[in-house]
Amino acid sequence: MDVVAVAHSLATFSEKSFPVDIDGICLDLKVAGKRPTIWVSKNLRLERKRFTIAHEVGHVVIPWHFGTILDEIDAKPKKTTSEYFEWEGEANRFAAELLMPSVWADDICRRSTHLRDAMHVIAQRAEVSLRAAALRVLRLGPPGYLVAAARNDVIEWTGRTKGTRSHGPNEGELVSTIDMPACEEPQILRYNQTSYLWWKERGSIKPPRRAPSEGWRTILSEMLQLVPEEKSEQIRRQINAIVGYAIGKEPKGSPVDVIYARAVASLQNRSSADMHLSMLLSHPKFDDYVLSRVYERSQAA
Ligand SMILES: [Zn+2]
After folding, report:
1. Residues of the chain whose pLDDT is less than 70?
2. Same domain for 191 and 229
3. Stated pTM of the model
C-alpha cells in the first residue's frame, strides 16, 4: 500500500522535524472549505512512519474525528482523555486495515503452517513492524496460538488468538523460566533486540502415568486437610469447577490424551490470589487428582 500517495490524495501532506517527541499531527479536520493537513515526523523508522501516515489518514477519513490531533502512537491510555484514546483506537484499527487488509492477511494466516511465519510474511510484504503484524495475526489467526515479545530475556508483552485455552507467560517474567507444557516448543523470530516467541497448543498430550488407584474425591479430601475447615467446602468447589470446566469441554468417552491436553492447557501458568487455592493447585497430589478425573471422563460412556 502506497500510504504516501493515499495521504497526498486526501490531505496536504509533508514530513517535518518536530521539536518535541511526537509521531504525527493532523490539522483542520472537518473544517468547512479547508483541506486537512497531515504532518509526520521525519525521524521515524520506515515501518513506524508508514503506520503513522496510515493512522493520520484514518483521522482524516473517519467522519467524527475533527479539529487538531497530536499523535504519540505508543502513548498509554489515560482516563482523563478517554475520547482521544477512543479516536486513537479507531485510527489504529483503520491503519491496520489499510496496511494489512483482513482478506489478504487472513489468507496468509490460513496458508502458513505456523503463525510465526504468518507474522513474518505480513511484516515483510506490508512493510510494517513485527509488532503490528503480530497484532494483526492474533486478531485473524486460528485458536491455539500464544505469542510473547521479549527483550533482554524479559517478556514485554503477550497475546493469544481468540479461543486459545491455555494461559501464556506474564509480562516481566524471564524467558528462561517459562514453562508451557500445553504447547509445542516455541518458534522464535529474533529481530534487533526483540525476540518473538510463538507457541502452538498441542491437541493431545500423553499423561505421564496410569490412573491413580484412589478416586479423585478421596484424593481431593486428603489435599483439603491443609485448608482450615471453614474454607474447605469453598476450595473444594473451586478446584472441582476449575478442572471440571476444562475437561468438560471434551465429550465423555474421548481419548485420555485429548482430555488430558485440555486439563494441562487450562492449568498452564494458572495462579490464584487466594492462598489456599494456590496451595492446592501446587499440592504434590494435585496431578493425581487431575489424572483421576481425566481417566474417569475418558472411561465414562
Ligand atoms: Zn491519532
Report:
1. 73-81
2. no
3. 0.84
